[in-house]
Design a protein that fits this description.
Blueprint: H1 13-26, E1 30-32, E2 38-40, H2 46-54, H3 60-78, E3 81-84, H4 88-101, E4 114-118, H5 146-153, E5 157-162, H6 166-169, E6 179-180, E7 184-185, H7 200-207, E8 213-218, H8 224-229, E9 233-236, E10 256-261, H9 264-274, H10 283-287, E11 309-312, H11 314-321, H12 325-340, E12 344-346, H13 353-358, H14 360-380, H15 390-399, H16 411-417, H17 424-447, E13 452-455, H18 461-467, E14 471-479, E15 482-489, H19 495-509
Helix pairs in contact: 3-4, 14-16, 14-17, 17-18
Amino acid sequence: MASNSTISTPSFPFLLLLILVVALLSGSGIVPTASGKELSIREATVLDLQLAFKSNQLTSRQLVEFYLKEIKRLNPVLNAVIEVNPDALAQADRADHERKAKVPHSLSNLHGIPILLKDNIATKDKLNTTAGSFALLGSVVPRDAGVVKRLRKFGAIILGKASLTEWSAFRSSNVANGWNARTGQGKNPYTLGNPCGSSSGSAISVAANLAAVTLGTDTDGSILCPSDFNSVVGIRPTVGLTSRAGVVPISPRQDTVGPICRTVTDAAYVLEAIAGIDARDNATIEASQYIPRGGYAQFLKIDGLRGKRLGLVRASVEFFLGNHTFQKNAFEKHLKTLRKKGAVLVGNLKLDLDKIYAEYDTEFAALEAEFKLSLNDYLKDLVVSPVRSLADAIAFNKKNPKLEKLEYGQDLFLLAQGTNGIGQKEKAALLTLETLSKTGFEKIMKENNLDAVVLPTSKFHHVLAVGGYPGVTVPAGYGKAGPFGILFGGLKGSEPKLIEIAYSFEQATKIRKPPPLKF
């Protein structure tokens, strides 16, 4: 493991430069600064990095080189990164040049910052976009995904593609969380076990400091669960707040793209960059009404919990945690913190979680049809592709069973292929899901005038997903089974309140710690 020992800062400029070079080459990630303090690239926030850029203590090239070395060192064990961008260093050099030239967008918080993208988010460059499957290896996308276009506009560096549960966990119901054919099994950096999915690689990577920030996608828990398991911050945005154009889809009704970062601040900056209207995604037009003037960083308030009404679904503690006594105790302690910081807890809310989760099959009835329709549209739009339809992908797997490790099966593919559009069965399922949302979550939120609900884990993601609602998970502790988070969820467009709440909680607790990575 690279050393984390500090280096005292000498007063002589030449020696200072020498120590900087030695530190970077050694992989320690420690950068001495002009103020006499030291910046560790490992665990550095976006603001830390920007300050280092502006004080000429760090360049984007040095930052990219650091992450590339860490990927080379740790990825053989973690399997968190599918590909690194061969043009990442060139992008870093351009960012350094733009900063010196003081071009307008060099003032962006994400300018010169390396970001890893989940491998279902298209980039029109030398990187593949495969959803972790060999069936899409060599395919050529027509353009950058909408969110990637926005990231490039703000000067972010596309460092590479993060691994994921193959096809965003929609090929097989038996596939292991974090597994895909191209990289194998992704591993939680704290436990080397289950990283959750499907945005596993994004969460693993940012937790293990293989990138400054990352992007994931969420259909039903795919941002919130891996963020929870890997002790990072994940934001599942309101559906349509961020563009899904150019993202390998599952459901236009539930899919959303969001940040996975080490801090709420970094996640807010990334969300600020990627939220907005995209002509290729109609849902962004309606959701644009929720985007606050002035962006999301303005809601990073230390007293953001003061006066907030937080709903407590008591049944959720037993429903989700069972006999995990340590997590229960931690959650009760956090409730005291929330009250101490000025939040009003509204308890004993009645939400029939058994009934909601019993309708999981109803959700899948809708998702299967939506997946086939939307995936076929995505594949047909590719410039070049080994497969042009879901049927082609199924056939590819049958021809290459070892390549795709077909012992995991492709039952979800087959169920989706058996659908024929949105028929009566699917319409009935959609109506059921809509009714559950309106008479369940929306009802308790509105009747109790809540700003958010607070829950002990990310597993409430199902309730948020089927209604297109946002949620934020923040590190909440470490147990025998590994890290766990606390979840704040709200109605559509409530990201400003959720960020206030999550940031205030994060700053009051400061629980996150980096993984040991003793290998």
